[in-house]
Amino acid sequence: MKIGVCYYPEHWPESRWQQDAQHMKSMGLSMVRIGEFAWSKLEPESGNYQFDWLERSIDTLQNAGLDVILGTPTATPPAWLIRQHPEMLAVDEHGRVRDFGSRRHYCFSSEPYRKECKRIVEKLAERFGNHPAVVAWQTDNEFGCHSTTISYSNAALTAFQTWCSRHYNGIEALNHAWGNVFWSMEYSSFDQIGLPVGTVTESNPAHRLAYWKFSSEQVKTFNRLQVDILRTHSPNRDIVHNFMGNFVEFDHFDVADDLDVASWDNYPLGFLTRDGTNEADQETWLRTGHPDSSSFHHDLYRACGKGRMWLMEQQPGPVNWAPYNPAPLPGMVRLWGWEAIAHGAELVSYFRYRQAPSAQEQMHSALCLPNGEEDDAAREVKILAKEIQQLINTPHESSSADLAIVFDYTGDQAARIQQPDGQHYDPLVFIQTIYSVVRQLGMQVDFISSAAAASGKQLDQYKLVMLANNTLSDQALAAKLASIDALIVMFPRTGSKTNECAIPEPLPPGAFQSILDIKVTRVESLPANIAMQTNKQNTIINWRERVESSIVANETFDDGWGFHYQNNRVHYFNGCPNRDTLLTLLTQQLANAELDPINLGRGLRLTQRGDLVWAFNYGPGDAELSNHILERFGFQPSNGFLIGQEKLHIGDVAAWKSS
Amino acid sequence: MKIGVCYYPEHWPESRWQQDAQHMKSMGLSMVRIGEFAWSKLEPESGNYQFDWLERSIDTLQNAGLDVILGTPTATPPAWLIRQHPEMLAVDEHGRVRDFGSRRHYCFSSEPYRKECKRIVEKLAERFGNHPAVVAWQTDNEFGCHSTTISYSNAALTAFQTWCSRHYNGIEALNHAWGNVFWSMEYSSFDQIGLPVGTVTESNPAHRLAYWKFSSEQVKTFNRLQVDILRTHSPNRDIVHNFMGNFVEFDHFDVADDLDVASWDNYPLGFLTRDGTNEADQETWLRTGHPDSSSFHHDLYRACGKGRMWLMEQQPGPVNWAPYNPAPLPGMVRLWGWEAIAHGAELVSYFRYRQAPSAQEQMHSALCLPNGEEDDAAREVKILAKEIQQLINTPHESSSADLAIVFDYTGDQAARIQQPDGQHYDPLVFIQTIYSVVRQLGMQVDFISSAAAASGKQLDQYKLVMLANNTLSDQALAAKLASIDALIVMFPRTGSKTNECAIPEPLPPGAFQSILDIKVTRVESLPANIAMQTNKQNTIINWRERVESSIVANETFDDGWGFHYQNNRVHYFNGCPNRDTLLTLLTQQLANAELDPINLGRGLRLTQRGDLVWAFNYGPGDAELSNHILERFGFQPSNGFLIGQEKLHIGDVAAWKSS
Amino acid sequence: MKIGVCYYPEHWPESRWQQDAQHMKSMGLSMVRIGEFAWSKLEPESGNYQFDWLERSIDTLQNAGLDVILGTPTATPPAWLIRQHPEMLAVDEHGRVRDFGSRRHYCFSSEPYRKECKRIVEKLAERFGNHPAVVAWQTDNEFGCHSTTISYSNAALTAFQTWCSRHYNGIEALNHAWGNVFWSMEYSSFDQIGLPVGTVTESNPAHRLAYWKFSSEQVKTFNRLQVDILRTHSPNRDIVHNFMGNFVEFDHFDVADDLDVASWDNYPLGFLTRDGTNEADQETWLRTGHPDSSSFHHDLYRACGKGRMWLMEQQPGPVNWAPYNPAPLPGMVRLWGWEAIAHGAELVSYFRYRQAPSAQEQMHSALCLPNGEEDDAAREVKILAKEIQQLINTPHESSSADLAIVFDYTGDQAARIQQPDGQHYDPLVFIQTIYSVVRQLGMQVDFISSAAAASGKQLDQYKLVMLANNTLSDQALAAKLASIDALIVMFPRTGSKTNECAIPEPLPPGAFQSILDIKVTRVESLPANIAMQTNKQNTIINWRERVESSIVANETFDDGWGFHYQNNRVHYFNGCPNRDTLLTLLTQQLANAELDPINLGRGLRLTQRGDLVWAFNYGPGDAELSNHILERFGFQPSNGFLIGQEKLHIGDVAAWKSS
């Protein structure tokens, strides 16, 4: 459990570096990420490498006792490079080039740019790959940020045509797979294939899903290119990438497969309006962030990293890029750090050491003010560092969950592509709501990719397994689910599409019919102001399915449609419950699975990792750890608290050893 | 009165065709529309015609006792054709090519594409023009769908310049007609004329109206091209086109003039959010559609078809393309069918036979599920077919209306072009509201084009004639109105523009001053939250006019402006009434015209055709046919009901012979 | 104090001109603006000058006793000129050419177009420069209207690169000034500089501010080009330009520096939705306009014109271009005219003489209807003209203010560029609200540019000086403020940016720390539904700052942040007060400055100019001039009223000589 920070030596006079490094060390930091946006300083003109300053800055950090995560600078190719390869820029959905002048101005499919990346990464790896202070590498920065996963450039078009020709056995096979006979969309050859954009009305869902898969693979191979070089020239270093929050635009399991650790960048206040929250939520959690936003991502990225997860950037105060940017409540900067650790983070790195007075992020706060003085975050980080050092030994385990949620990026995408979801259903928000509800009920959660779930033994360890974005009809996963003992809960749209984004045969839930004998014969999407009530006062919004089955539904709607089909340990909910109904339904299911649910309320959260338990209070008011809660989480009155106490103000943390 | 269905043999294995045909026949269907999107199967590469499969599928249908409507496939030119003629694609208002990958990817002005259409239509007509099963042709599919009437391509620019040079006697005449002296917009030659798009601020209203007329004519000549070929090679077949709902982007009277029948595609739930409804309406009619949406279009398209109207596509269940897509209430599929027949439809054809599991419409339900099993719609259609066969003889009349609404597509467009309407006034919604109100008051309605109204004797038969989108100052129509006996009701903006979208001389209502001595000297548009009240508690929204007249107004506003000017049988309402006020005002006018208004409430509707009367209950609750209603509509207790009874649940239909 | 009108002889038959001129004269008008859109009539083809008609129309006006303001026609280059120089068109932020077909279709940076402008202006000036009726020139028309200040054309790119190379001492200096090391945005040469548009995420604030300054200078030099020609060929004429309302897209002080008079175009109803009003305000002031919108601009443009201000276009009735366009209340056309005069206007010119029946502004009312008959405005203007002539002598003074607001266009822009302002904070709206509040409190206001404030003695005359959009850290202004005796009130963000849009050193308020020892260490922006309350029940919205200071805050928030820092006569409010709180705070400050605030209520306004005082009642109800008000504004019962009386209905004006 380490504390780190992001630092930009190139922004400050070299004379200042030593003072900064010593200050970091004195605050209790041990890791520093540098270099990821410094290309124009590392290579001011083509082939003119200026690495000495970087070495001096690494040495300075090392001399202060700090380790370095070195970033490859490929997220910000300099102006001269764009002038050499103007066709390397991405193109947006309106057909417009996405120009130089900020960052991430490249198309993943540009071969010339891939060559340039190889070159600079190779040079850097050769020079710094064995530097003793360089303990890890970060590839690029926030793949996909600013909607950059998908580009509609000519380079992308050509690469996609090639991809198609490799994935389908001839153009007729592609036509058949995509159902191109519809509207005479058949191609005679692969070079007739266009991009699913700019069409008169919506393009073919199969076309869009294929393009999404292709684009996701382009991210994977772009990253892999750098990883391969780094492994060659910099052995025994962790290779990581910093993923983002609320972001599903490529398959993160797939990209992370080539990494040692999945790290991510956490901005709880910045994310608030993207967390699927409504206006009331946004008022409640204005200065804390949503209580389940950070932990959701910790748990998800821990799965991406196969147990290894870092927090590469942690919000330190107001940021500059959200629709509005309030200051966090006192204590939250420390709380967010502790929470990451509780959910398995090996490193919590704050963004950034010192606020930059110029350019795009000049209003983004930091540990230190633009003038170098300490800001609030510095004071909280020092406390956090001290507490970690003094009180807590790292548990061996990174998680202690009895409950798994299968997560499928392709399934999420397949659910997005079809319009009839209505305007208010978002598959990521839906799965986040499920996560939030089980967290409110005291659960520890593991995510598992559908591929991992289907193939190995991982699933065997859980008492409850939930499927909420497994839109694809997945034979292997269905077979695996048939073989385990856990209680299984499936939500609407499970198994409702083939791999080619078509309706499966047999009808939805497709392959999952093998574990529950139901058939969805009709779906309907509903406007935001319509809610459907069951005879058990449960409320369904957005999406409802009509099921035909020999099984009698557990509940019914007024119009006779059934709700909630069950066969022993397998459950299917054929409508989207609102949050209150989810709380009711999942309380029952958790009890059925003998998981001892305990309602912690809106903002108190309990996290267990190994033999340590943490309590976090997000508010909206003070919280009290009742005896019931403390018992449930193994508190020993004789041992007392490692941190905090029974009573928690907003922003407070408590921790104890579980018996 | 026939029932039909849309069918895509090219989507299914040939081995299935016979079973499908027999199933259709067994359900009581007699007409099948096919072929309209099959170009890539009919001509997989340029000049390689593959018509045999189509012949076999027609034969299969024929053998099952079904007639065929054959569609020309010109709405979906295949990929190879686009590669040959990339310049045939349309261009949108942002200057972007509207690309291949869905449908309707062509510009009406492309001469190369017109040649390709002639070629394929000629080939099809030669081959199938005399096939005994082919009883009708459909040209293309849904002209203008996805905003495709207007294109800003180079082909369109050139064609428009030519059009201008034909319509104006020299460039000076055009400059004068458009008022181009304003802002120095004068042209020196026709080839300087641009398109009314991409200008710094709004372009000249005259320029826009001219471009709309041009674009409307391009649709007409594009359709006419196909009609001429079909008439040559396929004599004695009905030629139809399937128009759309809530769609006024070209002059449908003008295009339909070349057809034998006007058919249209009716999606009552899909249209709900486009029907000018507010959120409360959308909740009320969520699963029925708006009670006056279908009938409005039936009556309007019956006028387009000069009495002959088909329903080419009827919604069978949830669709995929609206903002949300609920399931219809049980019974609505049958009700919609009956309602079309009551309003004069010769054919009700459901869309489609079987749900396609792939491509854009995979979530669009059908008579049968993707797996071929019957869905709800199949069950309702069977009942409808049986009822028609057993109970009802087709009346000779297609309508029995005493009330006419003059409808003018150019007038609608002229009212749209001028911005000061405010953001909430939509001329189509306004006329639909008038229609809805008189339907609620028990009226049967005919629409008449302003050209037909002005020129022939049609108008002579009505007791009440209403003008609501006759924005153009129309001398001939005014003269005709002066000559008839009917009560005349005019609404704001009548006669407020010349043919060139300028303010007429004399002032508005322009030519209509000749039938009512009023002069509009000021207009004002109002924000949505402002309503103006008259001294008779009538409420005006959106738009108000100040009239100078020797006539004393029937009512006044607080600020002294008058409201409602009348000279004997001629009335002018110089403001937009809200729905409640319209109900009050039109109840009075209907009574004045001795049309015996009877308020049927929100969702009960009565339709008379010849000696048959139907009652339809759209809800929102049960409805009762009171003795008063039954008497008013000629019910004979001794004869009883042909269908249904006095009490109607939502979705129920009743019918009886009128005495 | 003259009344004028805008007139377009080229729109009407020459045979009508004399009648029109006599009618204008008979109404009491003395000035007529003509010619500013007539290029296509003045030069129908390249080099073919047709000036005779213009001379005849000027002569006709002169013969009727009218003076002429002649406009240069450069806002509407004709079609043939665009065909010659298609590259002269501007390009919008989406990369699309802004095409011919309306007006203002040119890029300020186009050198070929500048040449054409020089040519036509020279020709006009040579011909009419010494015509005795031509007493003034208007350059172009409404610079920047329709967002035309900024263009992204190639011409602009090249000009900007040149501008940069002149403003920065080498590319390294530019990189340093802009902080381009951030995200590797460094350029190697000036020709690598791009435009701050179309970037993947937001472009560099420094880049944007530089581009704004450049674009503002392009307007200045474009105007200057014409001014220089006119001064040469038409000596002793006033040269003016007609600026707009609510428009800050270039530095108006800078452009007006080259003019004799700043004129502007006032559309109080058209502006209502742009005035920063909410829906309730828009309902209240629907038919009067906002009570402080006109006067704000009068006072601001009087500052631009260094005391000389004209109203070039005054709304006469409903216009055509706002989201909705209601009719003004009777009396408002007269009131708006009087109000302009009270705030220092030498001329009030109504737009336009006669409503054009065609083209874009056909729904824009005028003094006369399209048919030439008088409309309401004509009747009110005649009263106004008579009252002026009979009752009022022009005071020598153009203002009598004790209170100054420093206004800085660059500061406004710098505040806009940074996103964290939240979505609801608009620096212009904020300063307008301050203005509105002090006007409600009976104050007379002068605006002063920050340059003028810093450099001369102007500031010395005021008792209170306010800074609300002085976002830039301005050493000279701070020094000046230190030297005066006035009470100084500063609002949030004062001094928060350098000239290069970076955070200053020392921290904000930067240079203003020298007059008040405070340091802003944190800022936060808030969503619209969040308001922060102080312990004195003052309410802060949108934006709040945390201050570190040796000074104890006058108030505090619940969370301990302070509010309102003061050192003797210098005050800083570190949050955006809502309107009610502004009223409280400024009442106190005005009292502190011994300015005798008097709350006039929502819509009664008092204006003093020299020894004349006017009262204007905007409503929402009747108003009464109490004895307290009359005394405060020097009313002498013995002298009585020059116009009106104590009781004012909405739209009424009163005036008296102050003792």
Question: Describe it for me?
Answer:
Three copies of one chain form a homotrimer. By secondary structure, chain A is of the alpha/beta class. Among the domains of chain A are: 403-592, Class I glutamine amidotransferase (GATase) domain (Rossmann fold, 3-Layer(aba) Sandwich); 604-657, Golgi alpha-mannosidase II (Immunoglobulin-like), CATH 2.60.40. Chain A contains 19 helices and 25 strands. In chain A, the strands form six sheets. An eight-stranded parallel beta barrel of chain A has the order 1-2-3-4-5-6-7-8, surrounded by five helices. In chain A, strands 10-9-11-12-19-18 form a six-stranded mixed beta sheet. In chain A, a hairpin with a 2-residue loop joins strand 21 (604-609) and strand 22. The mean pLDDT of chain A is 97. Chains A and B meet through helix 8 and strand 13 of A and helix 2, helix 4 and helix 10 of B.
Largest interface: A-B, 50 and 62 residues
Query: Taking strands numbered 1, 2, ... along the chain, how are they ordered across the largest sheet of chain A?
Result: 1-2-3-4-5-6-7-8
State the CATH architecture of the domain at 403-592 in chain A: 3-Layer(aba) Sandwich
Largest sheet of chain A: 8 strands, parallel, barrel
CATH class descriptor of the domain at 403-592 in chain A: Alpha Beta
Within CATH, the superfamily of the domain at 403-592 in chain A carries the name Class I glutamine amidotransferase (GATase) domain
- Measured as a percent range, the helix fraction of chain A is 25-40%
* Average pLDDT over all residues of chain A: 97
Q: Tell me the number of helical segments of chain A per DSSP (H or I, 4 or more residues long).
A: 19
**Outline type of chain A:** globular
Oligomer: homotrimer
Instruction: State the end-to-end distance of chain A.
Output: 22 Å
Strand content of chain A: 15-25%
